[in-house]
From TrEMBL:
Keyword Metal-binding: yes
Signal peptide as annotated in the record: none
UniProt superkingdom: Bacteria
Keywords assigned by UniProt, alphabetized: 2Fe-2S, Iron, Iron-sulfur, Metal-binding, Oxidoreductase
Every 2Fe-2S ferredoxin-type domain range: 1-74
Pfam families for the chain: Fer2, Fer2_2
Protein name per UniProt: (2Fe-2S)-binding protein
Organism: Mesorhizobium denitrificans
Coiled-coil blocks: none
GO MF term (any one): oxidoreductase activity
InterPro entries reported for this sequence: 2Fe-2S-bd (IPR002888), 2Fe-2S-bd_dom_sf (IPR036884), 2Fe-2S_ferredoxin-like_sf (IPR036010), 2Fe-2S_ferredoxin-type (IPR001041), 2Fe2S_fd_BS (IPR006058), Beta-grasp_dom_sf (IPR012675), Diverse_Oxidoreductases (IPR051452)
Phylogenetic placement of the source organism: Bacteria, Pseudomonadati, Pseudomonadota, Alphaproteobacteria, Hyphomicrobiales
Length: 153
């Protein structure tokens, strides 16, 4: 089957029922999305399909239609995406395991709401778990990313 991932067309040999996460990691070698729970409850595996965040651990690869974007596909021309830059500036990551999913969810939020409130951020990010408890830094980074994106315009 053919997948469009991060602007590249990939031909993969996978069972259509295989979760997208495993097709990306084990077959395509794209390691950004992480396995956290396997039941779409933690968000570590979040990727975008046509700009919509999805949990790749529970989505069969055979059901995927559209452009897949992983954290590896956010940077353009070697420059960090504003959300990635904000994550660094706010020193969000501790262990870092959940960060790819957190960032992908934050990107989708800011694509939908340019200047999110605390409530918007909490609602959007609430399904992404961080065992290190960096939630206040995540909120600060989302706000900083919104400001960075606005400054780019």
């Amino acid at each position: 089957m053919r997948l469009n991932v991060n602007g590249n067309s990939l031909e993969i040999d996978a069972d259509p029922d295989m979760p997208l996460l495993w097709a990306l990691r084990d077959i395509a070698g794209i390691m950004g999305p992480k396995f956290g729970c396997g039941i779409a409850a933690c968000g570590a595996c979040t990727v975008h399909i046509d700009g919509v965040p999805v949990r790749s651990c529970s989505l069969p690869v055979g059901a995927v239609e559209g452009e897949i974007t992983t954290i590896e596909g956010l940077s353009k021309g070697g420059e960090l995406h504003p959300v990635q830059q904000a994550w660094l500036e706010e020193q969000v990551a501790q262990c870092g395991y959940c960060q790819a999913g957190q960032i992908m969810t934050a990107v989708a939020l800011l694509d939908e709401i340019a200047e999110p409130t605390d409530e918007d951020i909490d609602n959007a990010m609430g399904g992404n778990l961080c065992r290190c408890g960096t939630y206040p830094r995540i909120r600060a980074a989302v706000k900083r990313a919104a400001a960075l994106k606005t400054a780019e315009l």
